[in-house]
Structure formats: C-alpha cells, structure tokens
Amino acid sequence: MTNEKLLYIGRIIERTNWSFPSHHHPNWSEIIFVVKGEGVVTISGERYAVQEGDLLVYNQGIIHEEYSSTTKPLETYYCGISHPDRSLLIPLENRPIIKTKQNRDTIESLFSLIYEESQQQREDFQEASEYLLMTLMIWVRRLSELELSTKRLERDSESLAIRIKDYLDLNYLRHISLNDIANAFHMNAYYLSHVFRSKYNDSPINYILNRRMGEAKQLLVQTTMKVSEIAQLLGYENTNYFTILFKRIMGESPSQFRKREWKERINL
C-alpha cells in the first residue's frame, strides 16, 4: 500500500459563478479532475485555462485559486491526499495541469469508483478506496512524466528547427539537397524535414527557394542589376530557369515585377 491517504473526495456539478479564492493546503495535497466545462485556475501565480479532461495537481503548500466559466460551468471531482513524509505528488518542475487525452475515461472511472466507495461505505470500503487511490496516483505520476517528456521533446524540436533555419539562412545561395542538410546535422532527412515543417509550416528546400526569390525581389527593386546578373548572384547559371522559377512563385516575371514596383514606388 502507498503512504498516501485519502482525506476527502467530493464533486462540484455545474455550479454557475463558482469560485474558490486564493488559498493553500499546508498539510495535504489536492487533485481535481475536470469532467465537464471550462474555467481558469492560478497556481503559484501562473494562470491556466482548464477544460474537460484536465487533471489539476496541487502539491501541499502551493497557493492556488479557481474560477468556473459562467457559460460552461465546471463539473469536477476533487480529493485531498495526505503524505506522512511530506513528499510531493509530482515534482515541482512538472506542469500542474495534465492533459489526460485518450486516458480520460480511465481517470474519470477511478475518481468515480473512489467517490462511490466513500459515499456508500460498504464493507471494506476504506481498503478498496486506498487501493483505488494507489492506482490513481500511479496514473497521475505516469501522465505527469509523459507530459514533461513531451514538453522537453517539443522544446528540443523547436530548438533544432531554429538551428536548421539559421543554417539555411547562411547557405541559401548554395544549391544543397535535403540530404546535404541532414548530413550537416547528422540526422535522418525525413525527421529533419518533419521538425522544420512543424515549426515553420514549410519544407527546408522550399524555404531556401522562397528565400532566394525574396532576395531577388529586393535586388530587382533596389538596384539596376540585370536579371541575368541577379540570377548569377543567386546561384542560377541559367537565366531562363531563374525566370521560370520566379514567375511560378511570384506570379509574374522578374521584369514585370520590377516594372510594376518601380511604377508604384516613389523613391525620395
């Protein structure tokens, strides 16, 4: 059995204008599961929007407050848990709001069973409640660690995507392939492309192409360089190929673009 003990369990059912101002539990922790509705909670000074399927974990001593939406009032289960060794339910670095997602039904069922056992108080209900609580706590910690791992992976992926973009910005004049980029980062080309697209909604190769065309537009507007000279500067040996690419992406030829821009622009 776990050292954690169930102190109380309750339900809040769609009470409009429900709120619980700032408070803390000095000697116990609390878990809340959102069955329905929406609301806003503040935990250690940070505000979170909560909705159906969210699991809220308040370690003992943490200051928090809760407010229900008036149009979509919260329906929740909540329970208080004591710790003889004053340990934390989840590490402080873990996010106190957990998205249960596909595990929503499991969490709600555990709360429902604990509530039913505590309410009806049949034979051995305390022992049954303690076993159910132990199972619930396994799930809480499991989902908390999973969410932390996911957040770390997202941060790592975002950092990688930024580094890839920096690399592309430095090398956009080179005609490099996706495999060349992947080799520079010592990783699989498919994974690299996936990470970049997740952040920038574009492929690395298409980003390079659009970057070149953006530079081409600047040169067409700001200089009197010939189209062939701009093509050469951007790494295109064949001016006709450059013109075809420019027109495909920009919707008009380099000469048409320059003529229109010069006509519309007033340089002082």
UniProtKB/TrEMBL annotation:
<dbReference type="InterPro" id="IPR009057">
    <property type="entry name" value="Homeodomain-like_sf"/>
</dbReference>
<dbReference type="InterPro" id="IPR037923">
    <property type="entry name" value="HTH-like"/>
</dbReference>
<feature type="domain" description="HTH araC/xylS-type">
    <location>
        <begin position="162"/>
        <end position="260"/>
    </location>
</feature>
<dbReference type="InterPro" id="IPR020449">
    <property type="entry name" value="Tscrpt_reg_AraC-type_HTH"/>
</dbReference>
<protein>
    <submittedName>
        <fullName>AraC family transcriptional regulator</fullName>
    </submittedName>
</protein>
<dbReference type="GO" id="GO:0043565">
    <property type="term" value="F:sequence-specific DNA binding"/>
</dbReference>
<keyword id="KW-0805">Transcription regulation</keyword>
<keyword id="KW-0238">DNA-binding</keyword>
<dbReference type="GO" id="GO:0003700">
    <property type="term" value="F:DNA-binding transcription factor activity"/>
</dbReference>
<dbReference type="InterPro" id="IPR018060">
    <property type="entry name" value="HTH_AraC"/>
</dbReference>
<keyword id="KW-0804">Transcription</keyword>
<dbReference type="InterPro" id="IPR018062">
    <property type="entry name" value="HTH_AraC-typ_CS"/>
</dbReference>
<dbReference type="Pfam" id="PF02311">
    <property type="entry name" value="AraC_binding"/>
</dbReference>
<dbReference type="InterPro" id="IPR014710">
    <property type="entry name" value="RmlC-like_jellyroll"/>
</dbReference>
<dbReference type="InterPro" id="IPR003313">
    <property type="entry name" value="AraC-bd"/>
</dbReference>
<dbReference type="Pfam" id="PF12833">
    <property type="entry name" value="HTH_18"/>
</dbReference>
